[in-house]
Amino acid sequence: MTTDDQHPGTPSTAPPARRRRRRRRRAFVAGGLALTLTLGGATAWALDRYVVEHVEIADVAAYEASQATDSGTQGAPSGTSAGSSSETGATADASTSSDGTSVSVRQVVEGSGDDTVTYYVADVVLGEATDLRSAFAQNAFGENITEKTSDIAAGNDALLAINGDYYGFRSTGIVIRNGVVYRDEGAREGLAFYRDGTVEVYDETTTTAQELVDAGVWNTLSFGPALLDGGDVLDGIADVEVDTNVGNHSIQGEQPRTAVGVIGENHLVFVVVDGRSTGYSRGVTMTGLAEIMQDLGATTAYNLDGGGSSTMYYDGELVNDPLGRGAERGTSDILYVGE
After folding, report:
1. CA-to-CA distance for 277 and 27, rounded, in angstroms?
2. Model's pTM, two decimal places?
3. 20-35 burial, b if ≥16 CB within 10 A, otherwise e?
4. What does the DSSP assignment read for 256-289?
5. Following DSSP, what letter does each residue of 121-154 receive, concatenated?
6. CB burial class (10 A; 0-12, 13-18, 19+) of residue 202?
7. Which pLDDT tens digit goes with each residue over 271-320?
8. CA distance 170 to 161
9. Phi, psi of 6 (to 5 degrees)
């Protein structure tokens, strides 16, 4: 008897074509289930990695106070608070000075039409190197903890503030803030601010956070790349990738940017370039940012987190126009000079 003569309802003797269809159907269902599970796992992973707050230190102010040294400089911000003057126009300028620390802020507009670039320059002369401080979003340390630059600044009585390196987006890098070690996972080219006013680019993988603190480091930043060395634009910065996480594969192209530069002892310059806003500011390339810092007289300069995070705050107000929408994106940390 051939298979064609067998009862069609018997599973073990169903026609080959029908059996193949059933196998395909079962394979499709199994594959769909596996895909659902995979996507579910990926979604959970992504939420945990990029969204869910992971708090390691819930009260940074108390933690820093507990780590204070006998020098008395930690936990006691000093900065500037005096009269201010300003003028309106395309190069609006404001300045404040007190106790040896001075801050001046101005807007610079270059080009026209679609080629317009608008950026903000804060020229800072510190009375003491430790007048430059750092603060974390929500007064907490960990991953994915964010707050607007202006809110962090206001909460710390800042006169001037810029976004930092967004340390909370990653789990690597050496993080020393206000003389206190928070993370010791050297991974890239960092920037170190010393208590004596020295600022230098260094290789995180060749040292430890404690060695840096012992050498007098007050703050570190972990983003990059370095833009200038001895006043010269560094080679290769147009090809640098800082992070290779989902959605953040490259920092190239014309983008909003934030950078810090060194002009002299305790003399710094902060720059925030707006971008992605036709007719107002297109943004700049990494090389373009380096050239801005060079033109301002910086000898050393370092790139910080950019894009929607690029923000400058001064005297109680948001100075720049992030992405041309006037809306800040949350970040994990700031550099600031207190009132």
Report:
1. 49
2. 0.81
3. eeeeeeeeeeeeeeee
4. -EEEEEEEETTEEEEEEE--SBTTTB--B-HHHH
5. EEEEE-SSGGGEEEEEGGG-EEES--B-HHHHHH
6. middle
7. 999 999 999 999 999 999 999 999 999 999 999 999 999 999 999 999 99
8. 22
9. -75, 160
